[in-house]
Design goal:
The structure holds two protein chains of two kinds.
Chain A: E1 3-11, H1 16-21, H2 31-46, E2 52-57, E3 72-75, E4 79-82, H3 85-91, E5 96-99, H4 102-114, E6 120-122, H5 129-138, E7 146-151, H6 161-176, E8 183-190, H7 209-221, H8 224-230, H9 246-256, E9 264-269, E10 274-280
Parallel strand pairs in A: 1-8, 2-7, 2-8, 3-6
Antiparallel strand pairs in A: 1-10, 3-7, 4-5, 9-10
Helix pairs in contact in A: 4-6, 6-9
Chain B: H1 3-14, H2 17-25, H3 27-37, H4 58-65, H5 69-75, H6 79-90, H7 99-107
Classes of the chains: A alpha/beta, B mainly alpha.
InterPro entries (chain A): Xdiol_dOase_suB
Keywords (chain A): Oxidoreductase
GO molecular function, one term (chain A): protocatechuate 4,5-dioxygenase activity
């Protein structure tokens, strides 16, 4: 059976690529510290020595659209083209191609349906920055096959927060029942407090530092009970109109497990939103 | 109200470099052309399969034709779509990094929670 060797949750700030590669006068003052933090975070995946990456993210109205919107979707393709014209335009993100892992995709789909999740699937999925940003930050050589899992945190009506947790728990169970001896890392990206296209956007900090403080505490301590007692679809509007992406962090808490403290926690208070990085090693070690 | 069509306009223009420029330079003409020719296009389908019933109401049409993004926010257009497209059109006009985004937030400063419903 497959082994989960690392569970990783982070933000997916699309400005990182441009900030980290800028030079001279174009290099923002926060870039060096940001790079230092990302390099330390990257090491937490490298030391786990994974063979396959299951990657949880949210399409940003690139391929998925209001004419036919899934709530949870698993990609099942041999390859995934990545990044879109408007991501090149605004963030300078490069075009990429990722290799797929179709057998694990099929296993997650079959097993997920049998567990009661009405998963959508796609045989031709162009992925966007919610999945490519963690490749850029954590595995820039882009040498591992992936299984993309997209969630709808974007187009109401949304699934309830507990459903994200339950899907995370199911993903863990399904990976561990995959009849394959490869080492799997699960990487998911979400948001802390965030406002996009609203009056609180692009402030000197995220729109709700108090929510961010509580959220980091919930995630780093695996406090699912405390998190679920406070977070609802309605309450998530308060910390910023894009904060429903926090539910992808809740999904990753489900993968990591109730009460599991993160083995690695870091944050970086940038303008616009708080960066947050978490790693769990299910076997306690993190060494191959 | 046809919030879906508002979002469809923003979505389809944002993903087409030529249309982004056309909407920047000729907003009213682009909105009129788009509503007449493109609103009914079912994305990913042959043109003969187009919808027959979609149209803007007057407030929606006018907000798009005047680049009035605070009004689009009020009407419940998806804020991510509006922001992304308007950055593409107007960020270039500002010398300071984030200059347009900051003005965007400022122009919406009259809004407080609860924000307009963005479900379609």
């Amino acid at each position: 059976m497959a082994e989960i060797v690392a569970v990783i949750a982070s933000t997916h700030h699309p400005f990182y690529y441009r900030a980290s590669t800028a030079t001279g006068a174009d290099r923002p003052p926060f870039a060096d510290e940001w790079v230092r933090k990302v390099m330390a975070f990257r090491e937490t995946l490298t030391r786990a020595n994974p063979d396959v990456l299951v990657m949880v993210g949210s399409d940003h109205f690139h391929q998925l659209w209001l004419d036919n919107m899934p709530q949870f979707l698993v990609g099942k393709a041999p390859f995934y083209d990545a990044n879109w014209y408007n991501e090149e335009r605004e963030f300078g993100l490069p075009r990429m191609t990722c290799q797929g892992e179709e057998d694990l995709s099929a296993h997650l789909l079959r097993g997920g349906l049998d567990l009661g999740f009405d998963l959508a699937f796609s045989n031709e999925l162009r992925i966007d920055h919610s999945i490519t940003c963690p490749i850029i930050t954590l595995r820039p050589q882009n040498d591992l096959p992936i299984v993309p899992v997209y969630t709808n945190i974007f187009a109401p009506p949304l699934p309830q927060p507990k459903r994200f947790v339950q899907l995370g728990q199911a993903i863990r169970e399904l990976i561990e029942s995959w009849p394959d001896d490869r080492r799997v890392a699960v990487i998911g990206t979400g948001h802390l407090s965030l406002e996009l296209g609203g009056p609180r956007q692009f402030g000197p900090h995220g729109p709700d530092p108090e929510f961010d403080r509580k959220a980091v505490e919930w995630i780093s301590t695996g406090d699912l009970e405390g998190c679920l007692s406070e977070v609802t679809l309605d309450s998530l509007w308060n910390p910023g109109n894009a904060t429903h992406g926090f539910m992808d962090f809740m999904l990753m808490m489900g993968v990591a497990g109730e009460g599991r403290k993160a083995d690695y926690t870091d944050t970086y208070d940038l303008f616009h939103t708080m960066e947050a990085y978490f790693t769990w090693y299910p076997d306690g070690g993190g060494h191959a | 109200m046809s919030k879906y069509l508002l979002d469809k306009f923003l979505f389809t223009v944002d993903r087409d470099p030529e249309l982004v420029e056309r909407y920047r330079e000729q907003p009213r003409a682009t909105v009129e052309w788009w509503e007449a020719e493109e609103a009914g296009r079912i994305l990913g389908s042959h043109l003969d399969e187009r919808s027959t019933w979609l149209s803007f109401d007057d407030a929606e049409r006018e907000a798009l034709a005047t680049h009035d993004y605070p009004k689009l926010f009020e009407l419940g257009a998806h804020p991510f779509l509006t922001l992304t497209l308007f950055i593409a059109m107007f960020e270039r006009d500002y010398a300071e990094p984030l200059g347009f985004q900051l003005e965007y937030g400022q122009r919406l400063s009259g809004y407080s929670l609860p924000y307009p419903d963005i479900s379609t």
